[in-house]
Design a protein that fits this description.
It is built from six helices and nine strands. The strands form two sheets. Strands 1-2-3-4-5-9-6 form a seven-stranded mixed sheet, sandwiched between helices. The chain has a two-stranded antiparallel ribbon with strand order 7-8.
């Protein structure tokens, strides 16, 4: 019995990478990622054993995540149908080496349109030089368009602005800071203005 996927993997084969302004040298895509041992696919329920959580740990603090917690969250995301966590696997070692999440928000505006958010982009730092960061971001960006999103947004650090600009993202005028409120301290609310975090989007506000 095969592993369960978070979403239909055939969606990735329908993406036209020639529509992206990203420059791949040599040209690669989700269907042909450049190496025979590399595979771009949806997150699977067996990826806990393939180091998915450890990879996320290169991006941010993950805390302790048990296999039961992973499978529960996987099932919740699959049931909701608005989470498109996409990964790159090194099939030689059966290890997840790249990941990015497309989260779809259902809106009343834009004729009850769909807005995409790009989150949790990470590539194993030992696989540099294979265009994997570009590949995983372009994959989920094209996927958002394919699914009918009117916009795709993300937050990133200043140093990554040139990278995302090269992939077609634009800074939103007048919306250059990301504001958050965190609940990490239990009942105490911590207001936080992240001045060094820039919000990027494919088009204007909303």
């Amino acid at each position: 019995m095969g592993e369960e996927t978070l979403y239909d993997p055939s969606l990735l084969l329908e993406l036209d990478f020639h529509k992206s302004p990203a420059k791949f040298e040599p040209f690669i895509s989700a269907a042909h990622p450049g190496e025979p041992w590399m595979k771009v696919r949806p997150l699977q329920d067996g990826d806990y054993e393939k180091g998915f959580i450890q990879l996320l740990g290169q991006l941010t603090a993950t805390g302790t995540v048990t296999k039961t917690q992973f499978l529960t969250r996987f099932s919740q995301m699959k049931a909701l149908g608005d989470y498109y966590v996409t990964v790159i696997e090194d099939t030689r070692s059966k290890t997840i080496i790249g990941a990015a999440s497309l989260v779809i928000e259902r809106k009343f505006i834009r004729g009850c349109g769909l807005r995409g958010r790009l989150e949790d982009v990470v590539v194993n730092n030992t696989y540099r030089g294979k265009q994997l960061g570009k590949l995983i971001v372009v994959t989920v960006t094209l996927l958002a368009n394919h699914l009918g999103c009117y916009k795709m947004s993300l937050d990133c650090k200043d140093k990554l602005i040139p990278f995302y600009t090269s992939l077609g993202y634009l800074l939103e005028p007048g919306n250059s800071n990301s504001m958050t409120i965190r609940y990490d301290g239990g009942s105490k609310l911590v207001s936080n203005l992240t001045a060094a975090t820039n919000t990027l989007s494919l088009e204007g506000p909303s």
